[in-house]
Every structure is written in C-alpha cells, then in structure tokens.
Amino acid sequence: MFDPVIDANFNEQKSSYKVAGMLFQTIPIEFKGVMTSLCSKTYPLPVKKIENGVFIQLEPFETSKHGDGLFKIFADPTVIHRYKYTTLWNLNDKEDFQRWVREETQIEDRIYFMIVEKRRNQIYGLIKIVDCDTQHGVGEVGIAVKLGTPKHFVLESDYLAMKYFFDFLGYRRIAGSAALQSLLIGKHASKFGSKFEGILRQFIVRKNEIWDMTVYSVLDEDWKVLRTAFEEWLEPLNIVANLPKKSFSDILKNSSIYDSLLDTAYNLKTAPLKTIKNFCPSDPLPVKLMSRNVTILPVDSSIHAEKIWNLWSSNKECNSYMLDCLSSNKEMYSKWLKHLESEKNTLLFITLNKNHGEVEMLQRLRHIEKEDSDINFISLDCILIKAFISVDVFLETMFLLLSYLFDELNFIRVEYLCDDSNVFFKEFLIESEFQREAVFRQHMVFDDRRIDVSVFSMLKEEWELNKKQFFAERKNKVFSEDHAQILNYKAKY
C-alpha cells in the first residue's frame, strides 16, 4: 500500500507534503545527475570559508587543528550510540577515523565544518555539506554533535550551513535523510522548517539489519522565509544572558510557511528492524531476456542507435517528460548515447516488440553500491518510451527485469525514478505494483524548468506476491508453456 502521508494528494500534479526537519545522513549520489542534459546555469564547488554566528562559528575542517578534538567526540560511546543509524557509526576507532578523514577531505564536492563555540573556542561537533551537484544546484547535509550540546548551538549551526549553501554558493536545494529508527534525529527535525518527502524502504543493510530512511529537504524559496525567522531569533533584542529569549519555533509560527510545517517527525512510527543473513546480491550483467511478445536486449550503440533515435523522434512530446531530455541534433544525440553507455555501474536495455521488431522502451539500470554506507540496490529509470505503448508490453518488460533482479541476482529493493509531472508513466508504475515512496522536490533543472522526482519501489517480499498474481492473470496471454519460467537469464547478448 502507498504511504498515506505521500499519497494524500497523489492525483494533484503539484502535491503538498507534510513537514519534518533537519537533514542528517546524505542521500546517495545516484539521485544526482539522472538527467545528463546541460542546464542553463552551473553552480560552484564548495570552498573553505568561516561562517561567523552569534553563539558559534563554523570553521572548515583542518586535520591539524580539529582532528584530535573531533575524534574525542566520536570516541565517546554515547555519541556513537546516538549516531549508530548514520554513516558515522564506526568513527570511534582511531584507524577508521583517520582513514575517513583522509578520504573525505580529498573529495571536491563536499566540505566539513567544525561547530566551535565562540566564547571558549570549544568543538561541539561537525556539520557537513556533501555531494554538491554543480549541474542541478543540489546538495546534502548532515550533522553530528556531542552529548550535552546546547540546542541553540545546533540550531545556529543549521542556519549558518544553509546560509553558506544558499547565499554564498547560490544553490537551490539541500536535502538529507535519517534512518526511520533515529527518533532523536526526527525530534530535532520537527523543530526546523525542512519538508518531509517520504520514506525509502529497505534502503540500507548493515550488520544483517535492514533500515528504512526518511528524506527531507529545504528549497531556496523555503530558505527566504527561514532566513528571516532565523535573523529575528538571533537579533540582539532576543538574546538575554547569552541565550535566546524567544524560541525559533515560536518565531516560525508567524511565518508564511508555518501552515505547511506539520509535525510529521513525531508522527512517524518505528517498526521492529528486519534482519537478513548473507545479503550479497550479484552484479547485473548485460543479459538478454525473452518472453513470448518481448525481448529485452542490452544496448549496443553501433547496432541500436538508429532504432533508439526513431523512438525519440516519433514521440518527442511524451519523452520530454522523461528524466533525460535529448537534443534534436543527431550529432549531439550520438554523443549523449555513448556517454550513457560509458556511465559507471550502469546498463542500458531496450525492449523489442517481437511482433514487429520495433524498439518500444529504453531503460537505464544503475547498480547503487556504497560500501561505506552499506547501500546495495537497483535504481531504474525510463529514458524513452513509445507513444501508445500497450500496458501488456510495459508489464511484460517490467516482469522480465524484476524477475532477473530479484530471483536471479537476489536484490531486496528495486526503485524506479520518474518526473513527478509525468502522470502517464506514474500510472504504468502503479499498474506494475510499484509503491510510491517519496517525491524529491525540485530535484533537477532542465531549461530552467524545476523538476520534482517521484521515487517508486518494489521489495522482494512484494515481488514474491506480485509474480504469482502476474502468472495467474497473464500466463496464457503472455507466456507460452515453455516460458513458465523466464528464459535466458545468463545468455549474454
């Protein structure tokens, strides 16, 4: 079933979503750059800059200056226990901490700030801005502080980080996620004006535990309102004995966005953690999959380029809603297709209708695997689709792919991304029994059009039920007797 929070306004093209708060663990990079076309604007990479506040300041991390103080925070067992559901869970080990520092400080799309009290020059934790996408102007944020950190220090850290991100770098959207089990993080989130976007189910497997992740965001248009509220909260008239007199949440109640700031974080319920043993799915291969009416082939641009171009040319209006917008220039198209083929951990597949030999779909399969955060799942998106494609062809295509991914490779989560304004394609995904999990607001930009991205998913236990129903309803119509099981799993094209 759909999540009731997300589904309340499903049929509205521009839905409103309930709200939670601050952002803590980063959304993995697969959500970046889904659209390979260039935007009309590019954004800068992060640069080191001190952000000075009233109670604290954010200092760019320097190993020689901050390394020992930060490790002391993570060496505290109470701190690690608080952040066991984040990517910081193992930094209480000195060797792991040093390796993490070396690796993270070499990546150009991120910056780590130390939260430093101005009066005593004491380190209270860190706040990070990572995975900055210079094409779409989006990034992720996370925060970790030691036990006993004053709440107004944490809140001002949020403010200064967003001030750096929106005002200094000029980005559009900052987002993040926290494990559904992290109620502490959810409660802090509820005091801040970021919006709850959904729950990504079975998103992480760590130490045989399966975690769901909650997702939040702040847009530049939200920031304009939040900044005014923060400035009022931090003005001298509101500071008495070095403490804010009026709470930030009270100030925010008078803002223009307060009506939408519903306390979702407190309403989220944690379910018992599911466990799994020996989770080690196989890597996807460029296989050929067949049923009676459909053949799925891995793309070879030297063979399929013309057929794919014809698919695009015959249905530009529909395909402009897909997450990749092609150029009408054939030379640019050829470069685009070769670029897609060369993407790391990515496979392209076409669906051939066996009745007439035409290409009806071009889909991209990404194997999302991040060892540092125990993420391992499949992300799909449809790049091109034929006008008036039949539901049967679409369902049969999805059945072949899902059977391969779940039954043969043993994944437990497959997600599908699409433009949220593409009602046509969302209906196809619902028909395929995908569940709508989240909407990433204004996650991408193309030709100055801000695009909301819908996230659908299917879990392995759902697949076990769906495939039985699929065979029961469609066996005689779609599959011949010798296709009762999908053929040619391992037959390389």
Automatic annotation (TrEMBL):
<dbReference type="InterPro" id="IPR000182">
    <property type="entry name" value="GNAT_dom"/>
</dbReference>
<dbReference type="InterPro" id="IPR051908">
    <property type="entry name" value="Ribosomal_N-acetyltransferase"/>
</dbReference>
<feature type="domain" description="N-acetyltransferase">
    <location>
        <begin position="58"/>
        <end position="176"/>
    </location>
</feature>
<dbReference type="Pfam" id="PF13302">
    <property type="entry name" value="Acetyltransf_3"/>
</dbReference>
<protein>
    <submittedName>
        <fullName>N-acetyltransferase domain-containing protein</fullName>
    </submittedName>
</protein>
<dbReference type="GO" id="GO:1990189">
    <property type="term" value="F:protein N-terminal-serine acetyltransferase activity"/>
</dbReference>
<dbReference type="GO" id="GO:0008999">
    <property type="term" value="F:protein-N-terminal-alanine acetyltransferase activity"/>
</dbReference>
<dbReference type="InterPro" id="IPR016181">
    <property type="entry name" value="Acyl_CoA_acyltransferase"/>
</dbReference>
